[in-house]
Design brief:
This protein is mostly beta strands. The chain has one helix and twelve strands.
Amino acid sequence: MKPKIDGLMIAALVLIIFLGTSLISDEATASTSQTASASQLIPQETNTISNDPTAFGAPYILYIITQGPHGSSYGHMAVDLAAGEDTTILSPISGVVTDNFTDVYGNPTLVIENEVYRVSLLHGNYFVTVGQAVNLGEAIGSESNQGYTTDMAGNPCWGRAGCGFHTHLNVYDKRLEMNVNPLDLLP
C-alpha cells in the first residue's frame, strides 16, 4: 500500500527543512532579528517571571501560525499555532488556572486568568490543575491533536498520527470586555 501524503505532511517537511537551514544559517552568522511572517518560525523567550498582568508571550519557543484570526462565528477570536507533536506548551501569561475541561466537541480546554486577560488554549495535553498559579513562559502541557482538529483539506484528524497538532489560542481582554486578536499581543 502506498503511503498517503496530505497537506500537513508537506507543511511538516517544509518546517523541518526550514528549521535545519535556519539553524545552519544561525551557526554561520551572528544573525539579527528578522520580521516574522505567518509562514516563518517565530522565536519566543521563555521562563519569564512577570508581575505585569499585561505581559503576554507565545505558547511555544518556536512556532508557525497555521490559521489566522477565526472563531467569531462561535463567540471568540482565536489563532492556531503549531510547533510539532508533543512540543512543550508555555503559559502565555502569569496568572491562575481557572478551568481545565473537555468541551462538547472533545477539545481539551485550559483557561488561565489574571486581572487583565482570560486565555483559553485548546487541543493540548495539559498537566496543570485548577487553582495552580503559573508564570509567563512556564510549561503547562504539550502539543496534541485531541478534540476537533482537521488536516489542511478539512478532514478530521481523529485517530490519525501526524495530523492536526496545534494549539488554538483565544484571548479575552477584561478591560475591553471582549476577545482580542492574539496576533496583536504576540511578541
